[in-house]
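input
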Amino acid sequence: MYLRGSKLRMNRRRRTSNPLTVIILLLLIGGGIYINQVVVPQTPPLFVPTPTPTRSPESYLAEAEQYMREGKFKQAIQVYQTALLVNPDNPAIYLAIARLQVYTNQYQAAVDNAGNALGDQSEQCGGTGVARVCSGIERQLSGCRSIHQSSD
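output
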């Protein structure tokens, strides 16, 4: 391999740096330092599990429905009330509790929960529709109880 002198220049001219490029690079370095020192420490770590395990409202509903199928109405009511703490805006939970409270002879609490399920609608119609429905259910259940007691 032979080196030719024309390609080897020891006195090569250097380009002068552009002041605008230097300023932009300094701003980028300063922004990176700012993000590293200020923004990153304030952000919570990503993909870290929560300190306490959280359950979804659907898991509470599934558990309560399982208790209801097994005939454990009081336990189902307790689980539904726990689901209400997680998701208080779901009227289906109020209605499920009201239905179970009718089965466990808690009629006034059933009326209250049915009223909570209706929300603003019960205030518009005076809440009498819910009371009528629950009192009708109560009459039917008392009639069924009397028939059941007379057959024994």
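quick obs: Residues 122-126 have pLDDT under 50 and may be disordered.
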